[in-house]
Amino acid sequence: MSSFSNLQLAPELARAVAEMGYESMTPIQEQAIPVVLSGRDVMGAAQTGTGKTAAFSLPLLQRMMKHENASTSPARHPVRALVLLPTRELADQVAQQVAAYAKFTDLRSTVVFGGMDMKPQTLELKKGVEVLVATPGRLLDHIEAKNVVLNQVEYVVLDEADRMLDIGFLPDLQRILSYLPKQRITLLFSATFSPEIKRLASSYLQNPITIEVARPNETASTVSQHFYSVSDDDKRRALRQLIKQHAITQAFVFVNSKLGCARLARTLERDGLNTTALHGDKSQDERLKALDAFKRGDVDLLICTDVAARGLDIKDVPAVFNFDIPYNAEDYVHRIGRTGRAGASGLALSFVSGNDNRLVVDIEKLIKKKIELEAIEFEEDRPRERINTGRRAWGEDDPRDVLDAPRASSPRAATPARAPRSAPRDPFFDQPYEAPTEAPPPAWEPGERPSGRISANIKPKRKVAALFKTES
Ligand code: AMP
């Protein structure tokens, strides 16, 4: 694995990389950085967690260093790189990383996404920024309001492109791309190369180099996976018992519905566990606060739905619970990708109840591993010596004691300002999962999303190909 020093990055960028604690490049970085530095278009198969943000940001910042200047004039800081992402959380996350890599340079960056007041974003844009990270809908709002001029864009990144198409952003992307100079470098990253993605690439990329570090559908070898047979009524106490049994300090708890998410968070909170909920009905501000609280370690259990959690860069969470087995097997792989990242060991604990057998078979097929169901023997069902210990619900061994235990090397220190651990070579980086081809659109983009969804569980395939101009 090669080191960043081989890249001969500008000292300001090399310093930022060193400060982040990165020692060697991840596979996507090893392959993509030299190609982007050479000025070629890239079509990369990789998803969040592989180090792809640095794989495109570092070489783009390096190429932009020739424009770096300390002038206060907005005209001296035109948008030169545009990074488009499907969701607010992802945009925010990528923008934070870009800002961290550029922090010792005079290159400016900012992020714009929907659900927030346009005014502060407008002020930032008017000051001038070299790197603009955005979700498509809000960017179009700013373009229409003439808050941003894109005629000097040299670099475009279409990140999580498959999800942008799933959500129905193709028309927005086409409009945005039509405002950009034809002469530019375009990088497209996607978890899968579906026919639609290939069409997008053939329309907007020029002679791209294809980079594929991924083998689909694999789970990280560092994650220990357990499936428990539990009735719906017993899931909550199973959760409490396993927290205690495995001395879990912090976990994601996945549920299948927004309603279930809010309800579970409330009941666990009532049980005395330190909990927050992350789902699509929460306001943007609430969601960012919930995430920050979890990252800081103020919250122990993050109860969330798939759409709210996908792609979030919270790494090294000690455990992931599948309180509900996901409807799509691919979501199982996404969910447990929150733990055991970058070589750390993780626990994935899943509750299988009455009607879940078919879903479990789907997961077995996808991960190509036999799933053995385990039984849980509840402690309170065992004969006890003392009946009333004065403590509620779980008796003497209160899971809250575990959750409240000091965490010296807490992974939750993963705020952008702090240096993450360096990643040893991890097969997970080589073996990301395949994104579901029919992922549900995020529920929090109401204004930016096409209508027509029938139910949370029925996901009609969008005919995105029809939206392309036919080129033959
Ligand atoms: P990404 O896939 O870009 O979302 O990155 C996932 C996480 O990996 C981020 O927290 C990065 O800070 C971290 N990361 C990226 N590149 C490296 C590297 N070479 N070594 C260690 N960590 C990295």
Q: Estimate percent helicity.
A: 25-40%
Strand content: 5-15%
Q: How would you sum up the global shape?
A: elongated
Give every kind of bound small molecule, once each.
adenosine monophosphate
Structural class of the secondary structure composition?
Answer: alpha/beta
Strand order of the largest sheet: 3-4-2-5-6-1-7
Please give the alpha-carbon distance between the first and last residues. Answer: 42 Å
Explain how this protein is built.
The protein is of the alpha/beta class and 472 residues long. It has two domains: 209 residues, Rossmann fold (3-Layer(aba) Sandwich); 155 residues, P-loop containing nucleotide triphosphate hydrolases (Rossmann fold, 3-Layer(aba) Sandwich). The strands form two sheets. The chain has a seven-stranded parallel beta sheet with strand order 3-4-2-5-6-1-7, with helices on both faces. A seven-stranded parallel beta sheet has the order 10-11-9-12-13-8-14, sandwiched between helices. α2 runs parallel beside α3 and α6 packs across α8.
